[in-house]
């Protein structure tokens, strides 16, 4: 199996993990506000990786990380966790599960690949992007006008899609000075710290205090492990494939989310949502050829 194929499989895993994040969001929402639950998930994910990060060699590499790498890690962390995950948590809690996941599959990765890295696209690649976009638009159109609450949730999902893609694509510039585990630990630890400070500040403006018990901590731990897998997959996959593959592999989140919505919430897509999801899957199948980007 080539590096590009392994990278694609890693990103498909990321899409599968992304599709179940809303289950954790909904389960934690009665006890924790959005920033509180994302902070808990990040903190527990970082705790899982702490033994690896505390090894002497790992500590030395983390302590000597370059300013450029640290800046990219901070940008990626703020984009993925402080913005994208917080927005998608709000969208999952307040909107329709499958529709929110579909909006999050919009092809921002491809556009950011062009804007940030000047990647060039063939006619086939452009066609697959258009097809994935059309599929997402069909799903959005089917649910956007249901209510103001659904509209706000879909806008949050749209913002989440942009910031998630920005955070994932920002990892392209990271050097190999840190291992994937070390980069993941740093991202989760930074995110937890920022979100804990933000949550404390919001409590000063009247936000409810968190309600922690064994059930909440267990769900938070499982979600934290899922966060670790998510970042491992993106760190590994994003450097090994073209931006269109990143885009279309992550678009599979729509399909996985449809299965999760049916299994967990007994919720099915409408006919239009099925059509949109089918177009997204077809766009992935038609994109047979991967292109390795230049290594930074």
Automatic annotation (TrEMBL):
Q: Any keyword Transmembrane helix?
A: yes
Question: Which UniProt keywords are given for this protein, alphabetically ordered?
Answer: Membrane, Transmembrane, Transmembrane helix
Keyword Cell inner membrane among record annotations: no
* Sequence ranges assigned to domain EamA in this UniProt record: 7-140, 153-286
Transmembrane region(s) = 38-58, 70-91, 97-117, 126-145, 151-169, 185-205, 217-238, 245-265, 271-287
GO CC aspect terms: membrane
Q: Which SUPFAM superfamilies match?
A: Multidrug resistance efflux transporter EmrE (SSF103481)
Coiled-coil annotated spans:
none
Instruction: Tell me what this protein is called.
Output: EamA domain-containing protein
Species this protein is from? Thalassorhabdomicrobium marinisediminis
């Amino acid at each position: 199996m080539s590096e590009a194929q392994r990278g694609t499989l890693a990103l498909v895993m990321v899409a599968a993990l992304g599709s179940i994040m809303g289950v954790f969001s909904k389960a934690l929402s009665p006890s924790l506000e959005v920033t509180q639950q994302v902070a808990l998930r990040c903190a527990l994910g970082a705790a899982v990786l702490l033994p690896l990060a505390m090894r002497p060699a790992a500590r030395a590499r983390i302590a000597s990380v370059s300013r450029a790498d640290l800046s990219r890690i901070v940008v990626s962390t703020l984009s993925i966790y402080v913005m994208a995950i917080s927005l998608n948590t709000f969208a999952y809690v307040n909107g329709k599960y499958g529709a929110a996941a579909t909006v999050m599959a919009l092809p921002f990765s491809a556009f950011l690949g062009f804007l940030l890295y000047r990647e060039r696209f063939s006619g086939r690649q452009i066609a697959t992007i258009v097809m994935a976009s059309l599929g997402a638009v069909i799903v959005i159109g089917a649910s956007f006008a249901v209510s103001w609450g659904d509209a706000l949730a879909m806008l949050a999902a749209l913002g989440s899609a942009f910031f998630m893609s920005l955070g994932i694509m920002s990892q392209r510039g990271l050097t190999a000075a840190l291992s994937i585990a070390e980069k993941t630990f740093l991202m989760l630890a930074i995110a937890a710290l920022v979100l804990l400070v933000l949550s404390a500040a919001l409590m000063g403006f009247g936000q409810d205090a968190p309600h922690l018990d064994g059930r909440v901590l267990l769900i938070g731990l499982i979600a934290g492990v899922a966060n670790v897998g998510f970042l491992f997959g993106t760190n590994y996959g994003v450097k090994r494939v073209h931006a269109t593959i990143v885009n279309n592999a992550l678009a599979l989140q729509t399909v996985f989310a449809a299965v999760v919505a049916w299994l967990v919430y007994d919720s099915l897509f409408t006919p239009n949502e099925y059509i949109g999801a089918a177009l997204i899957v077809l766009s992935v199948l038609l994109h047979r050829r991967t292109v390795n980007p230049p290594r930074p």
